[in-house]
Amino acid sequence: MSLFDKIFGKAPQPSPKTYGGEFKLLNYYTPHFTKWGGSVYEQELVRAAIHARATHISKLQIDITGAAKPKLQTKLRHGPNEFQSWSQFLYRLSTILDVHNNAFIVPVFDEFGEISGVFPVLPDRCSLVQYAGVPYLRYEFGWGEKAAVELINCGVMTKFQYRNDIFGESNHALVPTMELIHMQKQAIEEGVKSAATYRFMAQLSNFAKAEDLAKERKRFTEENFSREAEGGGMLLFPNTYQNIQQIKADPFVVSPDQMSMVKSNVFDYFGVNEDVLTNKAYGDAWAAFYEGAIEPFAIQFSEVMTKMLFTYRERTQGNAVMATSNRIQYMTSREKLNYVVQLLDRGVISLNDARDVWNMPHVEGGDVRIIRGEYYNADQKVTDNEWIGDDDNAEQ
Fold this sequence. Notes:
Blueprint: H1 3-8, E1 32-34, H2 44-57, E2 61-65, H3 70-78, H4 86-100, E3 102-109, E4 115-121, E5 125-131, E6 134-140, E7 146-150, E8 155-158, H5 175-197, E9 200-204, H6 210-224, E10 241-246, H7 256-270, H8 274-277, H9 284-309, H10 312-316, E11 320-324, H11 333-344, H12 351-357, E12 381-382, E13 387-388, H13 391-395
Antiparallel strand pairs: 1-5, 2-11, 3-4, 3-8, 5-6, 6-7, 9-10, 12-13
Helix pairs in contact: 2-4, 2-7, 5-7
């Protein structure tokens, strides 16, 4: 049994011959997604940017609220499927989304035809088709396998969605930057090769044929520069060598302005920066990165998963899947201390909430909120043992 059989083997599959053709969209745009053949993920700078986002997204906490589908909720609390943890699921989903601007989540069915988990898939092609008037997403994979799942049971996350009502655009807008990166690497490679290969040049007289020049160059190199050469540190050459010039092996360096422009293009495209890539972002800098790069993913993922797993009625009753993050973890130590001091003694957070900020384990009875004793209601007076707020006690 293959992974394909594990994911799609128990899903109800309509016969391909009974498809009613493609499901037409409002703008009559062909409703299909094709995996782009570009090498976006093969460039180290782009991969580093994608990895930075995916790494932080993989730390999102998945919470499920409501009472519907208790069996499914129990399974999802332990992981999205039998092959992945939630962090692995989120990391791959984020990576696929950044590389292709489309990410597909398919349900995993059990032997009773009920959803028992979810899985992120990367098809070579995905088409929106219809069967008996019901829209389906038909996935086609490179090894020839095909499977169709009702659109209502699938999750589709997109970026740069414009022309297509269902799918996002490709990353062709990044092609010029990718070509610049490729040309820079080629220039550096050729520059290093040239600097490491040639040390001097000279003009030879009385050599008419190219073959003779090649033989003389080979002879001179073997007799003077090979490991077996025993020249005693002295280099001798005949008077047929003229205009001898030394070639300085200056290393090739890409223009800092050009490199900065390329980096800026990539960082702007994926919503990251140098501090995020080198794990130096914290405090306000990390909060800005979270709000611009992590939170939009968390919101879209939460909405897509909620709509995918729960019916409209179940959603109105408070059933939902939420991807959240403890942003307080990325504060500086001073900011954390100020946060805890200001909110703990005012009863806004509990002792265990404060311990979460410092990654400390919970303690028994730590969920109770406390208030410092010198804080009182301005409209009340207090005695040694009781609050006095009514007129009868006030007269006493």
